[in-house]
Amino acid sequence: MFIKMEIEGKEQFLKDTYPLKIRYAGAKSPYVKQVDQINNNKKGNPRQLIPVEGIWANQFVTDYSLTVEYLLLSVEEIVTPEAYQMMIALIEMAPQVYLISKKTMQQISESGNPAGMISVCEFPKRSLNQLALGPNSLIVVMDGLEIPGNVGTITRSADGTDVDAIIITNRKTRLTHPKFIRSSQGSCFKVPIVEATYDDVSEWLMKRNYQIVLTDTDGAAPYYEPEYSGNVAIVMGSERHGISREWYNQPYQAVKIPMFGDCDSLNVGIAATVILYEATLKRKGFLKRR
C-alpha cells in the first residue's frame, strides 16, 4: 500500500505513524550538510560518524545493531518492498528522521544509488584492551596504508578468512571514508577494528606472545613456509613505503610472495588476501604443505 501512495501520502503516513520522529529538512539543513562534509572530509569528525547509503549497506547497520544518529529519507525513492522494509527498520533504530527531496538526496549521495535512504551511524569504536581474543587468534595489522579502497579490501578478506581483529597503526586514511565502507562490503562493521600507536600495539602483542609476520618483498621466506599456528599478527605496509622500520626492531619473520613477472609486488589488498587464506587454511586444517 505504501509503495503505491503519492509522495504526500507517504509523508503523511510516516508523520502519523511516527509523530515524534519525523521532521522535514532542506538542502541547507545542518543534517544534510553534515553528510556532505563527512563524505568530502570538509570538517573534523571526532565522533567518527559514517553515512550509510542504500538497502544493501544498511542491512549491515541492522544486522550489527549500529548506533544510528539520524536517518535521511527521500520517500519518493521508496518504491520496492525491500526498500520499505529497510526504511521501517531504520526508522525504528533512529531517534530522528528527516524527510528530504529526491534532488537533495542525489546531491549528497556518494554512491549515486542511495535508494532513498542514508543513515548516519557511529563507526564501532574499540580499544586494544577491549579485544576479547582467545589463545589462538589471527590478527591483521595495517601499517600506514594510504588508499581507503585497499584498507576496505583487506578488511573484506579478513572477514572471509575469519580473522579475529584488525589493528591500524600509522593511519593515513580515515575509517569514515565512503570508499573504505563500500570496498569493505560492510565487513568493517563485523570485524573488530582498532587504531593505536606502534608502541602500544607492539607492547600489547609481546605481552600476549604473538608471532609477528612481516610482509616484505625482500623477506627471507616465501609466504607459504610458516605454519601460522598460535597467536599470529600479520603486518601489511603501504605499497609506496612498505612497513615502518620500527616493526623490524623486535622478533619477527619476514615473508614474501614470489613474483615471476616484471612487477616486484602485488597490490597490497591482493597480497593480504593470498597470505590470509594461506594462514587460515593451515590453521583450520584444510591445507598441509609438508
Automatic annotation (TrEMBL):
GO molecular function (one): methyltransferase activity
Keyword Transferase part of the UniProt annotation: yes
Keyword match Kinase: no
Lineage: superkingdom: Bacteria
SUPFAM superfamilies per UniProt: alpha/beta knot
Gene Ontology process terms (BP): methylation
UniProt-listed Gene3D superfamilies: 3.30.1330.30, 3.40.1280.10
Domain tRNA/rRNA methyltransferase SpoU type: 138-277
Keywords: Methyltransferase, Transferase
Stored InterPro entries: Alpha/beta_knot_MTases, Ribosomal_eL30-like_sf, rRNA_Methyltransferase, SpoU_MeTrfase, tRNA_m1G_MTases_N
Protein name: TrmH family RNA methyltransferase
